[in-house]
């Protein structure tokens, strides 16, 4: 892969090889008195600070899975992967670390720090005009992307770290989950219910309760007497089953994973060389040492339990790694409680201290400093130094083995924890959000920031994970989710059920329409996704990546979904519409409800209040661009797509590059894909339509195209074309 002139690597010390990058750039070894562009460099207390004076107009983009605004100014972000189920605005860390940002304003440049432990970005929080990046280490790689173009910086970042992961096409279908479906019967019933209610669905997840005592790579035979049969039967109706996997291996004599891991020395060790103990779901566990390639191979082979059943999707959870407590942490707590009990007559502040200790017993920084990884060269490294790589390497174990088993077959693979580079082999969902309206906005912003990092295939738990949800919230979130690549309704233990039929008849009908609309959009979504990966352009883009000017920089709750469609979800309670900014060009407003019902109106650029009742989501097609739709189906690939509907607002000329392939293999890399170059030119009051197919491998089954082309005055011409 060729990188252009404007990416420079500044190597500081002897960095750990993280696996984030796929090219070795010639580095500029950084010496004490060297300078790097844009930043003032300061060495203090074994930390290196990079300081930049921001101008008023500077906007900071990126940083992937972080809370707060899309413009990252005004907040501190701390990269140290953590399992925090309370995504409240002040939080600085989540499950993944993505230290890549773009500053756009007076100057424009990009920066990526390849360092797998704590990094702090203070972006105008402590001092409103100062960007201060702190790395508490003298061994890391710093990349500066010196370009004025945000999209070229991103392209360069993808050249450096690799292209985004491509899931199978069915991964764009609707997915249902809950913690937990407790039995085989329950899973089968959920599947049946989707087909009975006519709501399309492609995937159902089984959360931790399918396991025997939370032991990874086991199945609870009482609750799931025939997991394999369930997988096969559901496949018959187009539903794929995806199991969850946790890294912690239960300490239990006779349990294969435990015995093998112990015998082979595959677990992380403590300072005395004993297998490190941390408690997670199964109680006391050992953590596999995923930073070692032999361990990764061992772990990867275990997925065979599922791949033998025909399972093609996996969900790697808890891999920050999440720690509920360690024996040491628990002992500290008991000591404190004992003191408390002895002095209970006078207990005051001690109660609060005990409470704090109890809360901090999970994911305690000290615990992360107290275990070690044996690397391939036999050396030991403290976990803290490579903390952010744990989930990446667990997921690498999965991906490598899936590729080994079936080199030409795509898989759906989600990880909760991540680091740059993971985006090449898998993707992430946004973790444990809540059934809060505020978290819809978080979802919309994070979707854009994650796409900048190459996590194109992502989304949040639709309806919210923690807390109970209302019908209205689930409906609005189902609308938003219909326009995110990963579309999964999921909720936590003991929360109100939120499958589409759990509310009332009217809500069910609305949700059916939404999911069907999603499926009608799959030809467009898939085509745009594949084109985005090919072109190295984010699939979801902020408006400010497409349009110029200050106004669009403030728009964070509307986004481009592919090149032609702008989505403006309603994310507030009790609203019957919302304000929408329409930049620069004319837009075709399709505030959509049902794929077949189109009440389209042409809008001039400007700001509008757009009406959108509960069953409607505001969608806008950009002037001189096109979208393609098909009839919805029960699941992706249920039927061949033989007819397409092409919709657009053409005031001049529009081209659409419709792409499709077999959806399950990598044969597209050998030219086995189909293309329709749809070219529409306005001629007087009419349109000239030209469609050029490229289809050497006979992928396309399209026989007929319905055109529905709007003129800037709102008039429409409909034509059919037979291929
Ligand atoms: O601590 O497996 O983010 O999606 O349902 C909770 C149970 C553990 C966290 C995941 C969530 C999943 C849950 N897990």
Automatic annotation (TrEMBL):
Residues 164-527 form the Glycoside hydrolase family 31 TIM barrel domain. One of its GO terms (biological process) is carbohydrate metabolic process. Pfam families: Gal_mutarotas_2 (PF13802), Glyco_hydro_31_2nd (PF01055), Glyco_hydro_31_3rd (PF21365). Residues 21-122 form the Glycoside hydrolase family 31 N-terminal domain. Gene3D superfamilies: 2.60.40.4040, Glycosidases, glycosyl hydrolase (family 31). InterPro entries: Gal_mutarotase_sf_dom, GH, Glyco_hydro_31_AS, Glyco_hydro_31_C, Glyco_hydro_31_N_dom, Glyco_hydro_31_TIM. Residues 537-627 form the Glycosyl hydrolase family 31 C-terminal domain. Belongs to the glycosyl hydrolase 31 family. This is Alpha-glucosidase. It comes from Petrotoga halophila DSM 16923.
């Amino acid at each position: 892969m060729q990188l252009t002139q404007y990416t420079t690597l500044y190597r500081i010390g002897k960095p750990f090889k993280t696996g984030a990058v796929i090219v070795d750039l010639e580095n500029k070894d950084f010496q004490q008195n060297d300078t790097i562009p844009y930043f003032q460099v300061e060495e203090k207390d074994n930390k290196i600070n990079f300081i930049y004076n921001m101008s008023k107009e500077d906007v900071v983009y990126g940083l992937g899975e972080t809370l707060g605004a899309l413009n990252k100014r005004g907040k501190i972000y701390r990269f140290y992967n953590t399992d925090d189920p309370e995504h409240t605005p002040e939080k600085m860390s989540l499950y993944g670390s993505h230290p890549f940002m773009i500053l756009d304003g007076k100057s424009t440049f990009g920066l990526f720090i390849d360092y797998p432990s704590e990094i702090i970005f203070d972006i105008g929080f402590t001092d409103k005009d100062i960007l201060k990046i702190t790395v508490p280490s003298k061994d890391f790689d710093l990349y500066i992307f010196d370009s004025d173009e945000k999209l070229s910086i991103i392209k360069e970042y993808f050249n450096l770290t690799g292209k985004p992961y491509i899931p199978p096409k069915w991964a764009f279908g609707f997915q249902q989950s809950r913690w937990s479906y407790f039995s085989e019967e329950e899973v089968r019933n959920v599947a049946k219910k989707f087909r009975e209610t006519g709501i399309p669905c492609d995937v159902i997840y089984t959360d931790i309760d399918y396991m025997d005592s939370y032991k990874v790579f086991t199945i609870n035979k009482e609750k799931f007497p025939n997991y394999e049969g369930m997988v096969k039967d559901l496949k018959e109706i187009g539903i794929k089953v995806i199991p969850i996997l946790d890294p912690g291996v239960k300490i239990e004599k006779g349990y294969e994973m435990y015995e093998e891991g112990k015998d082979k020395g595959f677990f992380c060790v403590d300072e005395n060389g004993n297998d490190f103990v941390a408690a997670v779901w199964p109680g006391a566990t050992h953590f596999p040492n995923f930073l070692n390639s032999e361990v990764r191979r061992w772990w990867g082979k275990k997925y065979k339990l599922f791949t033998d059943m025909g399972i093609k999707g996996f969900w790697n959870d808890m891999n920050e790694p999440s720690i509920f407590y360690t024996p040491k942490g628990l002992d500290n707590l008991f000591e404190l409680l004992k003191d408390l009990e002895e002095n209970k007559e006078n207990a005051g502040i001690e109660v609060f201290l005990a409470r704090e200790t109890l809360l901090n017993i999970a994911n305690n920084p000290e615990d992360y400093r107290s275990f070690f990884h044996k690397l391939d060269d036999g050396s030991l490294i403290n976990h803290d130094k490579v903390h952010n790589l744990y989930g990446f390497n667990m997921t690498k174990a999965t991906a490598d083995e899936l590729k080994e088993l079936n080199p030409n077959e795509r898989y759906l693979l989600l990880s909760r924890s991540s680091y740059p580079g993971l985006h090449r082999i898998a993707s992430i969902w946004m973790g444990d959000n809540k059934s809060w309206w505020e978290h819809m906005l978080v979802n919309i912003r994070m979707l854009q920031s994650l796409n900048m990092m190459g996590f194109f295939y992502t989304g949040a738990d639709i309806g919210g994970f923690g807390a109970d949800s209302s019908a209205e919230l689930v409906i609005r979130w189902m609308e938003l989710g219909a326009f995110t690549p990963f579309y999964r309704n999921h909720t936590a233990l003991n929360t109100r059920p939120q499958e589409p039929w759990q509310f009332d008849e009217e809500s069910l009908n609305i949700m059916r329409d939404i999911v069907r609309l999603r499926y009608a959009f799959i030809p467009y979504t898939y085509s745009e996704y594949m084109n985005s990966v090919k072109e190295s352009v984010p699939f979801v883009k902020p408006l400010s990546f497409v349009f110029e000017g200050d106004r669009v920089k403030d728009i964070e709750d509307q986004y481009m979904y592919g090149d032609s469609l702008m989505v403006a979800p309603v994310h507030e309670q009790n609203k019957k519409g919302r304000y929408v900014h329409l930049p620069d060009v004319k837009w075709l407003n399709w505030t959509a409800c049902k794929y077949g019902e189109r009440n389209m109106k042409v809008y001039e650029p400007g700001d509008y209040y757009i009406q959108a009742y509960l069953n409607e989501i505001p969608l806008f097609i950009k002037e001189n661009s096109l979208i393609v739709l098909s009839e919805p189906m029960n699941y992706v690939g249920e039927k061949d797509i033989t007819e397409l509907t092409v919709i657009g607002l053409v005031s001049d000329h529009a081209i659409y590059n419709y792409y499709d392939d077999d959806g399950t293999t990598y044969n597209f890399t050998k030219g086995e894909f189909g293309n329709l170059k749809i070219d529409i030119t306005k001629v007087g009051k009419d349109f000239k339509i030209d469609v050029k197919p490229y289809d050497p491998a006979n992928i396309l089954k399209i026989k007929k195209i319905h055109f529905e082309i709007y003129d800037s005055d709102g008039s429409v011409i409909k034509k059919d074309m037979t291929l």
